[in-house]
Amino acid sequence: MELQSNASRVHASSSRPRISIDVPVARTVSNSRQADLTVGFLIVGGGIAGLATAYALAAAGHRVHVLERSSGLHQPAGGIRIPPNCTKVLAQWGLLEELARRGSPCPVSKLLDLHTGESLGVTDWHRDLVKEMGEAYYMVHHQDLHEILFDLAVSAGVRVSFSTTVEAVTPPRDAVQSSVDATTLSTIIPSTSRPSVTLASGETLHADVVIGADGPYSMVRRVVAERMEERRSGLCVYSGTLSTSEMRADPRLQSLLEEGWPMFLGNQRSIIGYPIRNDQEFAIHIWWDEDDPNTSDTWTPTVHVSSLPGYSSADIDPRARIMLDKVGLLSRMSFVDRDRPESWIDRSERVALIGEAAHPIMPCNHHSAAISIEDAAVFGTLFSHLHSHAQISTLLYGFQDLRQPRATALNLIELHNASVALSGKRPLHHTMEDQWAEVAEVWGYDANDAAEEWWMQWGVLRERAEATSAQ
Ligand SMILES: Cc1cc2nc3c(=O)[nH]c(=O)nc-3n(C[C@H](O)[C@H](O)[C@H](O)COP(=O)(O)OP(=O)(O)OC[C@H]3O[C@@H](n4cnc5c(N)ncnc54)[C@H](O)[C@@H]3O)c2cc1C
Fold this sequence. Notes:
The chain is an alpha/beta fold and 471 residues long.
């Protein structure tokens, strides 16, 4: 009840005109299974999750329109990590060459004491070992990943509208009867049986399914879940980049480039750096105390490193300081522990969440992009089996069943890694071999296989059960 009243309140606040525009016709993408029934999706948010999901759905033969409030690509940001489980999906989508061209593989990371610079150990991301897991570990610039996914989605027939802010999402008033079904039904379903979004321009768009891929501050989540509580951790992640030629020119920084990807670990503070853009740039993430919890988060680099609380007198390794002084401006994201919605699907079963809207995660971690891209692959693979409108709910719940445990597990691993990195103590794990079990489970995951297995085990079973009960 509360969910519906939330939705209608959001909608009622808009007195602008309602215009219904349909989503575009998808182009066929080779090498992908095409769903027997094509439906229309509106995706709120054209970040990593939104564009990846848009591609996966278009590749499965669906019509997809992405609504993104920013004005276009090339939003300033920093580095983002692509672990092998994510590389695997991108490789299945034919993006390996592009990823290798724009990213940097990273075989070794060197753990260092933030205060003394003393070596604490090495994590060896050995290529052969990584290959065992499926694919390599890459580091890329967020802009590059965004651009690669945009090009892919558009080439598959996805329509992307920039400068398009969604103000409200309205679930369908009348649920479609699951017994009613026909391959041409989408053309005759009344608009009250389809969810809609209201744009800041006043337009209203309808689709068969609305997906909220609108990030950690999701507005679509208000339609799906009760108010989520959040707790600030007192830490922020600051991100920036500098050119590797500038680092190479300074003999004091050469060791940071040559000995591997530096991870400076300290007490409640940590700094990591890694190469991106074919080793032309170096991405930096700094976990540091939050000075003012009321300062707003931004991915746009606007904070100077000298304004980090206590920076000038902080006891940090001179190499780390020299490196940070060269970075200049940083983006700033608070590290917030947010409640996760119990359900990612609204009561009408036609509005769903994906990416950080469904499962917010600490900014700038190993799996920031990976979870969203895995989500997209699972969503697309499940919806490649669509052959009836009645099945939409089943596939949405299949998505949730598969992805909730995985997202929770990855989040816990990230929290554990962060607590080790910020504990100021020598980490227990020094080699890849020590972490083998965790690595195999996390990196060995194949999102497409997981979706196919779910379909064989549950999807087909439910179909048979429904067919039997209908007889
Ligand atoms: C501009 C930007 C830069 C980033 N840079 C980095 C980085 O350098 N390193 C890193 O590790 N992570 C970065 N991230 C975060 C990273 O993208 C996410 O952690 C992860 O990939 C999951 O992405 P998401 O698509 O679920 O959410 P997000 O990446 O937050 O994307 C959500 C998208 O929805 C759009 N949106 C939100 N509300 C509305 C609305 N009402 N109507 C229309 N559109 C809406 C936003 O503009 C955004 O593009 C960045 C995110 C953004 C938005």
